[in-house]
Amino acid sequence: MGRHQIKHTPAVSVVIPCFNEQENITTLVERVEAACMQFASNSFEIVLVNDGSKDHTWSMIAGIAGNSQHVVGVNLARNYGHQLALSAGLQICRGDIVMVMDADLQDPPELLGPMLSKMQEGYDVVYGQRLSRAGETVLKRASANIFYRILGKLVDIQIPCDTGDFRLMSRRVVEELNAMPERYRFIRGMVSWVGFAQAAFPYERDARHAGKSNYPLKKMISFAVDAVTSFSTIPLRLTAHLGLIAGLFGLLTLGWVVISYFTGQTVGGWASIAALVLILGSLQLLMLGIFGEYLGRMYMEAKHRPLFIIQEVRSCQIGVERENP
Ligand code: UDP
Ligand code: MG
């Protein structure tokens, strides 16, 4: 009898969120399965989470899960976004060690072996750190670079640069993540927040195997705002700082006006007033916007809605208890 039946939990779970990845699923499962066979003997599961894809991703996942002991298919009720799809996978998976990767094969599954060896040196988290980013636009690289630098300045915890969600985590780290109730999830930051011993694993990031990126600029910006607002309240304090600066500037201007008055010159023009009013007005609206960003998030969090809804779990694993909604 294998370890599978005795412990009811696999040694390794690989969790993969999938959104419109029909061209990648077959190769993905083949490569991940091969890597797991090699490095996790027979005790592994691959959890594929379909995040409301519009193409044939789910029917492909369901087909594979129905035939394979190792593949678990999770179908979400709609598209909840990458981080929530990943959270769903982390809730469902049962492995002692959990590997997270993307469905587009940008993160090579074959690194499971070397990353597992790194874990055995006594780490709870081994995160992939990108040395290169093949096939990504200059804009994407530059924006990612600036983003991680700014984030580093704003947050108290150390969020390593050039990392994605590609990583290995121990069961206790995954349990801690699952216990975090927040809706706006910046998972790589949350993992740093958990702590324990964490190590970087440098690797070369491949280009997308097929299909196109689901992170257009708009999504990237909202992801960046999520990251900052989930880990920092410094932007809120900016109001006070700007107020101080504007006040000092106002005092200086006042001094200038008074001196001009007594030296017989008048400070001219409504243009200067209009400029000042516009600048101050825009600063106030900007700060109100930042407040609104935090307030809106508090409102959404206060509703305590479930993070995601699972429509179906497809699995033919034996001996693994999994609640099916
Ligand atoms: N993804 C998802 N839901 C979404 C968008 C993306 O589950 O709404 C998945 C996608 O299938 C992939 C991973 O998240 O496995 C990363 O997405 P993508 O490759 O498009 O992002 P990029 O690598 O370009 O940052
Ligand atoms: Mg990708």
From TrEMBL:
Provide the E.C. number(s) assigned to this enzyme.
Answer: 2.4.1.83
Q: Which GO terms describe its cellular component?
A: plasma membrane
| Residue intervals passing through the bilayer | 242-263, 269-295
In terms of CDD domains, this protein maps to:
DPM1_like_bac
Organism, per UniProt? Sphingorhabdus rigui
Its signal peptide is none
Q: Say which family it is in.
A: Belongs to the glycosyltransferase 2 family. GtrB subfamily.
In its UniProt entry, what is this protein called?
Dolichol-phosphate mannosyltransferase
Instruction: Provide the protein's localization.
Output: Cell membrane
Concerning Pfam families, the annotation shows: Glycos_transf_2
What are the record keywords, sorted? Cell membrane, Glycosyltransferase, Membrane, Transferase, Transmembrane, Transmembrane helix
Please list the residue ranges annotated as the Glycosyltransferase 2-like domain: 13-177
